[in-house]
């Protein structure tokens, strides 16, 4: 049978082929896609071209992502270099911030300390609570209720940070006022509860901001932890149950060891989010002319809130560049924290 | 339409693993050829290499020749896409497209190749469904999703989908292994009818099935663990089942095998 | 395990089951209480925040003007006006962002799942998506500022905001889409190839539609998230009391930006504006979340 004739079977054969004919010819169709036939056929060509174009787009999108990240790093760097060159202070070690283009004198240290201190404080609160929530949702809550309850926790993540900020300033700060003062008065000998550089009673402090941040971290840490706890292998669980362990013992001997790296990684991801949080801190923290003094009752600015506070006046490229330099530090910081979070789980194949 | 396939000294590899060694085999047109043999001997591997489906698996490659009416399907000038258009395949597990209706499943091959004409597509759908003995059961629910059919119906839907693009050859990899005996019988009947128009190669673990539906049977075996699979013998089905020429074939068929 | 038996009717033979020591029992109870308590503690801020928003802002939005007017021409002493200019801004910026981010993100996911598979480039792409998902929104905004305003010399605008939001949205959509494409069974791809359908059409017509329902949900959730972002609007566009339809020129309000500007109006009128906008924002986010699950239900794969 020659290719052409076989492929161009008359349509009549096909239609009269009866129920068993299987004759479902589509002439154009097959005239275009014969095998084996010279490769000059348009369908084959078309297919290949389409494939190449589409694969090109997909690969291009992938390459674009890599270029994008590189561009972010490079652009920030280029903008940061001129002001850094004119900077009279040590950028990394000075604690004063003066981005007046005529008299550049800016250091990121104080901002960095406030950023890290408030984030770590938030993490210290959020970690145990998230652990409890994740255990509750995966191990304790009745199967049917677990999903809706988890949804409630996820709702915490749906609230925009600006609303958290306003709530923190207008509602939480006054509500915590008495407690703050009490802590300050009775535990003031512990450095973190010592007198800060803003009023503990008014509450525009790292203390209040950190608690608000902690609330924002709960859904993030819980979501990832929940997932790893859920993956505890059933044989491990059954092994412990068969030994007559109580529920808590089962969790302590199987769920927690299995889920620990995932939980730690989740907490690091949360820390990354806290470091970069902007508007809630901008709203809650009161600015101050004093340096950060390692007290929860200090005010001040984080890197992110400082940038946002100044953003309206980004008119001079050099002044803006000073803030870009600070942004670069923040970028590097979150990068390291996130990379660490991923490295922790990457070593654990059982999570795949 | 129905074309012959000549496999010449075909070797198949998964990466560095030599899966099948030196298969030479002729598949005549309008004829059912059954592949039998123990698990892991490479039946599916050979079958997939006949329409270049092995290329979908990373690292899999073929050496040797597969000729479709004399033309090498592996030649550089040949597009694998058109090989598959010409040599259709039905899989072990029914796999209708879940997003498509019954009708759209059947004409998926044509529609995605650019055929738009509704009337023609409807005709094709009906003919293919009749060809797959499914028309009577689904003609009133053509717009319903293919996933709502029973397993046996889904498999016949997949056969209808394969014949709707009017291939010359139909490859079937254990098409009945996921089905109940009644559906199996329906498909076996269908194969008997399809062979009037198509060249069919079927892999099966069911000896009776091979005996019932095939004209020619090829027995594959493993030389040993980690060794490549080999074609032991191929002959008329009747001869293989009554008087095979090798001891291994006889042992396997009579169930005395390992 | 323990039965309520009194001393009198306790059987002479040892109990069939070993008693659990009081210490173990206590620790088990304590753990249950703590863990349940943790969950309840998390519900406190949720309820409290939602209550605050509604209590302070609901009265303001129950007013037709709120949805049909702007604050154009009003001073901090004029109680009327509305936020339709900010609603427009929020929706427009979100929409522009989605139009740009979604196709890119889907193509990246397609690359990772259908083409890249373990190649070095794919590893690099996965890594950059990870980094991007951790980039703080203020850094994304700074980058856009450095690119758009400083380097290209273009004015601050709503479109620049959308571009910054694109950076935040892409990693979220890539992740979701990637997970969904991975669970599309290979059998479907093979069935399609076996029909002689080229790979790209297999992806576009078989694989993506199978995953579409989930992708839509993911996009809506991501959209709801970026529309509440404040940092990019602070850096990249100025506030405007009037409506501005043009995303490329001039200042444009959005709900977060409006809240941040009006919170400096320290009187009851400003307060009501801020919290009214908060209610509006929460409402929009809720609608997008619900729309996500509704659309996914409508587009879900049916078997009947
Ligand atoms: N994707 C793959 N990657 C690597 N090796 C494979 C792959 N598929 C099959 N193999 C190997 O190739 C050999 C032949 O496999 P094949 O699936 O062809 O056997 P089979 O005869 O079809 O078996 P069965 O009857 O169980 O279906 C086996 O050793 C198998 O492990
Ligand atoms: Mg097989």
TrEMBL record, chain A:
InterPro entries: MetI-like, MetI-like_sf, Phosphate_PstC, Phosphate_Transport_Permease. The chain crosses the membrane at residues 53-78, 111-137, 149-167, 202-224, 278-297, 320-341. The keyword Aminoacyl-tRNA synthetase does not apply. CDD domains: TM_PBP2 (cd06261). It is a multi-pass membrane protein. PROSITE patterns: ABC_TM1. GO terms for biological process: phosphate ion transport. It is found in: Cell membrane. GO terms for molecular function: phosphate transmembrane transporter activity. Residues 1-45 are annotated as: Disordered. GO terms for cellular component: plasma membrane. The keyword Lipoprotein does not apply. It comes from the Bacteria. Keywords: Cell membrane, Membrane, Phosphate transport, Transmembrane, Transmembrane helix, Transport. Residues 112-341 form the ABC transmembrane type-1 domain. Part of the binding-protein-dependent transport system for phosphate; probably responsible for the translocation of the substrate across the membrane. Belongs to the binding-protein-dependent transport system permease family. CysTW subfamily. This is Phosphate transport system permease protein. It comes from Labedaea rhizosphaerae.
From TrEMBL, chain B:
One of its GO terms (molecular function) is ATP hydrolysis activity. The lineage of its organism: Bacteria, Bacillati, Actinomycetota, Actinomycetes, Pseudonocardiales. Residues 5-247 form the ABC transporter domain. Part of the ABC transporter complex PstSACB involved in phosphate import. Responsible for energy coupling to the transport system. PROSITE patterns: ABC_TRANSPORTER_1 (PS00211), ABC_TRANSPORTER_2 (PS50893). SUPFAM superfamilies: P-loop containing nucleoside triphosphate hydrolases. Its main location: membrane. This is Phosphate ABC transporter ATP-binding protein (PhoT family). InterPro entries: AAA+_ATPase, ABC_transporter-like_ATP-bd, ABC_transporter-like_CS, P-loop_NTPase, PstB-like. It comes from the Bacteria. One of its GO terms (biological process) is phosphate ion transmembrane transport. Keywords: ATP-binding, Cell membrane, Membrane, Nucleotide-binding, Phosphate transport, Translocase, Transport. It is a peripheral membrane protein. GO terms for cellular component: plasma membrane. It comes from Labedaea rhizosphaerae. It is found in: Cell inner membrane. NCBIfam families: 3a0107s01c2.
UniProtKB/TrEMBL annotation, chain C:
The keyword Membrane applies. It holds the Pfam family BPD_transp_1. One of its GO terms (molecular function) is phosphate transmembrane transporter activity. Gene3D superfamilies: MetI-like. Its main location: membrane. Residues 87-296 form the ABC transmembrane type-1 domain. The keyword Transmembrane helix applies. The chain crosses the membrane at residues 30-51, 86-113, 125-148, 154-174, 206-227, 274-295. It comes from the Bacteria. Keywords: Cell membrane, Membrane, Phosphate transport, Transmembrane, Transmembrane helix, Transport. It is a multi-pass membrane protein. One of its GO terms (cellular component) is plasma membrane. PROSITE patterns: ABC_TM1 (PS50928). It is found in: Cell membrane. GO terms for biological process: phosphate ion transmembrane transport. Part of the binding-protein-dependent transport system for phosphate; probably responsible for the translocation of the substrate across the membrane. Belongs to the binding-protein-dependent transport system permease family. CysTW subfamily. This is Phosphate transport system permease protein PstA. It comes from Labedaea rhizosphaerae.
